User: Which sequence fits this backbone?
């Protein structure tokens, strides 16, 4: 039977005990994968870090692969949930800047960087992991794709290949804030650097795709 949800003093609904344990297991797995590598991490280590029994871990996740997939799905779900509703009465650069800023914030988060460190070597080793990551990436950016399509339908953008344009847009953001940290060993970008990446990405995107009276 699922435990009843606990409540904060304010009365707000919080996680059930079962959900709390699941969250603790996912957090512990991410930390252990980062510290020891995915292949070298055992379910015993994850259970110990999460302060739960090994049986509890297996009650939630049948394998390390399932844990990895759950972590990946959760992070890409955060990307998919970024608000990208098109507004015909608002400037394109303002809308894109808001979308890009939220993307950059997530790309710079500890959880995403940790997952990227774990995922990159696994992707190079396994085509299945690589395909899964790419599939999740494509799916998570569907909201941006819808935004581009809406702007095109409104006559404010002209994009022959919207899917490619999405990859360009997100790729520019990653080139500015993710890859320098992940591959170059750079420190986390400052707020000023993040703003510059967002502004230059939006400017380059609209220079290529905005109709003449929008530039």
Assistant:
């Amino acid at each position: 039977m699922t435990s009843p949800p606990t409540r904060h003093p304010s009365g707000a609904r919080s996680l059930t005990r079962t959900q709390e344990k699941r969250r603790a297991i996912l957090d512990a797995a991410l930390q252990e994968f980062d510290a020891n590598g995915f292949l070298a991490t055992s379910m015993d280590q994850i259970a110990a870090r999460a302060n739960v029994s090994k049986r509890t871990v297996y009650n939630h996740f049948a394998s390390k692969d399932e844990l990895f997939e759950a972590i990946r799905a959760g992070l890409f779900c955060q990307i998919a949930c970024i608000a990208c509703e098109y507004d015909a009465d608002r400037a394109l650069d303002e809308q894109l800047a808001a979308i890009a800023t939220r993307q950059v914030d997530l790309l710079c988060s500890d959880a995403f960087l940790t997952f990227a460190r774990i995922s990159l070597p696994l992707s190079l080793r396994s085509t299945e992991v690589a395909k899964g990551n790419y599939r999740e990436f494509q799916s998570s950016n569907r909201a941006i794709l819808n935004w581009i399509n809406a702007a095109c339908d409104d006559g404010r953008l002209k994009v022959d290949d919207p899917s490619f344009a999405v990859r360009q847009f997100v790729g520019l953001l990653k080139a500015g804030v993710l890859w320098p940290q992940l591959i170059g060993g750079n420190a986390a970008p400052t707020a000023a650097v993040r703003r510059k990446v967002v502004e230059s990405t939006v400017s380059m995107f609209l220079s290529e795709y905005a109709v003449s009276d929008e530039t």
Observations:
- Residues 1-12 have pLDDT under 50 and may be disordered.
